[in-house]
Amino acid sequence: MIEKITLKLPQWALENVILLNVRLNDRTLVRMMLDTWARYTVITPNIAERLALELADARRIPVATTSRVELVPLTPLAQVDVYGLVLEHIEAVVIDLPPVLGVEGLLGMSFLGRCRLVLDVPKQVLELSLSQHKSECSTVAALVPAIVVNRGG
Amino acid sequence: MPQKVLPGVLERLDPFGLDQLIELALKLKESKEKIRDIDELKATYPGQWIALAIPEGEDQYEPKRGYLISHSPHREAVWAIVNAMPSDKGVYVFFNGPVMPRGFSVTFYDREDNPEVASVGP
Description:
The complex is a heterodimer.
Chain A: E1 4-8, H1 11-15, E2 19-24, E3 28-34, E4 41-43, H2 45-50, E5 59-64, E6 69-82, E7 85-94, E8 105-107, H3 109-112, E9 115-120, E10 125-130, E11 148-149
Parallel strand pairs in A: 3-8, 4-7
Antiparallel strand pairs in A: 1-10, 2-3, 2-6, 4-8, 5-6, 6-7, 9-10
Chain B: H1 2-5, H2 9-13, H3 18-31, E1 36-37, H4 38-44, E2 48-53, E3 65-72, H5 75-82, E4 91-96, E5 105-106
Antiparallel strand pairs in B: 1-3, 2-3, 2-4
């Protein structure tokens, strides 16, 4: 079992957002945005359908969007696999992200909170490892902005 | 008939037209036959959503080759095809274009209570 991964980040990521290829339930590989301000990992309804998640009886939680507050399903993902670092039973909310974002989900704190996250900006390296403190969040130096603004103008 | 090839998909693809449905169904059939280089697909279909089946032996996180399942500027059209496939098939779906174009700002906020500010110390 892999307990630590080290990823090289492109310069683009440091100026925009960090995108990761994430395998969900061992059969669906999608691009997700690393987001330390998202309390939960987020997936789109398309992925929920692909993974055959039962949402009818799922707990609903309020999520504020730009225009209103919606009640959205909160459901566990059996397996979330980030370049071999695998965590099970990750809670995820199901929201239809705008296609213009170009991502199919957000890797949020329901995953990251069980890891040690180190972002070394000068070296353009992201390290993600299993937390030694299983029950606590140990995110370190999480410098990823949750409000994403393209600084290129 | 497309209905026999992709049961249940017709209704979902209706906004995109029958012609496109048939085209996608044909591409699905074609995709079963040959493996494609992902860089080639990226060059061929810029600005589109692309779905691939990952062949055995390929890197499972950063595949370089795959079987083209579907491509379209419309995300829902691609997922309609993907979700009509057997659930045990591994797929890779991504947008082959600019992510969050210039000028976009994004905020995600889903806390039910008041956020706590970070403090100094271990």
